[in-house]
Known about the structure:
The protein is of the alpha+beta class and 262 residues long. The protein is built from five helices and 13 strands. It folds into two domains: 171 residues, tt1808, chain A, CATH 3.90.1570; 36 residues. Strands 3-5-7-8-9-10 form a six-stranded mixed β-sheet. Strands 11-12-13 form a three-stranded antiparallel β-sheet, covered by helices on one side. The chain is elongated, with a radius of gyration of 27 Å.
Amino acid sequence: MSERPTMHTPQVGTVVADGVVYVTTAYELPPAPDISHLITEDDTPVDNLLSEKNQRLLTEPLYSSWAGPGHERTFLVAANVGLFVVPRNPAIVPDVLLSLDVTVPEDWWTTRSYFVWEFGKAPDVVIEIVSNTKGEEKGTKLNTYARAGVAYYVIYDPFKNLGEEVLEVYELRAREYVRRPDTWLPDVGLGVTLWEGTFEELHGTWLRWCDREGVVIPTGAERAESERQRAESERQHAESEHQRAERLAERLRELGVDPDRL
């Protein structure tokens, strides 16, 4: 009787590191796709001043003031960075993208754009700030983000180039975007809101992240100013209490009572 050939079963297991579960196998992993033909940056300035400022107002506050999506959960928020869904297609460049539970490599030069196959998932949110009628925000971009699996798509049209709506939020359901009745993103734990105020000496209406109650996520500068005002208020309150105590002590002395003996 001939012997059966020996079948080698790959060893599969899990490794937990920094709260992330990695599946391991004895099979050799396939090589990373060739991306040498992809254009990840072209040094072409394409944004106007308003869009550039609003992009920073949508990125810096999350790193400065947002607690994140949950305990020990990471996130990446970036502006004007190429999003590559598959290696064979060129990038689509959202004004802002937010991706939860991802970690950027320490060597940024190895992953200079958002390659879905490298990060393991599509962004959770993309935001488009409309500046003209040529951006395809409700056409090509909307369809591309839906096919990529982006959970929430935000269109901010401050000059109403696309219609009467200034702010629209879409949620992916069954691979199609459905307009949300509000601007809250439940799976992210953030919302977006229109905020009237001054940012970097420019007053106007800005798109900003907010909490469930509609309170905007502050920038680092705003949070520092809020802390300064709180400290100043406490100092003034303490000074007022000290002056009140001094007046009371003086009144007691006028009445022949030593306040230090009370």
